[in-house]
Amino acid sequence: MDASDLRIFEAVARLGGISRAAEALHTVQSNVTARIRQLEQELGTPLFRRLPRGVEPTGAGRRLLPYARRVAHLLEEARRATRDDGTPQGPLVIGALETSAALRLSRPLAAYVAAYPAVDLTLRTGTTCELMQQVLEDRLEGAFVCGPIAHPELLAVTVFREELALLTAPSVGSLDALAAAAGGVRIVVLRAGCSYRQRLEEILARRGIAAPRILEFGTVEAIFGCVAANLGITLLPRALIGPVWQDGRVALHALPPHEAMVDTVFIRRRDSHQSSALAAFLAMLRPAQDMPLAAE
User: Fold this and answer.
1) Which domains, ranges and CATH numbers included, belong to the chain?
2) Are 255 and 199 in contact (CB under 8 A)?
3) What are the tens digits of pLDDT across the range 148-188?
């Protein structure tokens, strides 16, 4: 079993067919079939089962797939590390919470793009759960997520502190009034894995409001509209909700510091090479105090 075998195996699994993999790899179908059979014989187990249209991995194939992807990534990372002479250049793919992207990253990103035109920067937004998984799978070089993060394969350092506030419709006079709300309390989040959902549930539980119903929306703007219409409540950074609060569309309820303050941390894999492009970006964000992650 070598890297080439695993590359062919990954292509077949990803594309769901021998012919499609052969086309993507610029080879003939018979070569892909022969390499897959050779790999199955070496491992002593079938890796694919045939379907009416294409193939799908067996249990053994599904277990092998993460290793095949990891080997491919390591080889690509090795090539990038070898070529990295300290000058920021090439692709840089990072992730961020939608709130962090809106509040904290627009100016640094603009400054970075202007300072390092040879870097092809991509920013992907998602929830903390989604971004953590993408970093672990090497689909992101790093990501800004809601802390704290304690994972053995990840390095994490605090880069921002946010003050959170509870948002309700203007008709909700106080948090105590929520407990008596007819039909129960609904909380509004971006989607499954929303960074602030668990924190909001804990805040409500302390006030005797347990098991709230969940509404999911795709954008922060949709959440504002939902809350303004009294369809639910939400928890967001206070700096993000200033305009809609000042317009009177929603009511803002301040929280005590131990509930309101939350860290945004930057995470990356412990065993990954930190590119010069990423190091330069983190240096632009680094506050007065030292930022050990950028120097790892």
Assistant:
1) 3-83 (1.10.10.10), 90-160+262-295 (3.40.190.10), 162-261 (3.40.190.10)
2) no
3) 899 999 999 999 888 998 998 888 877 776 766 655 788 88
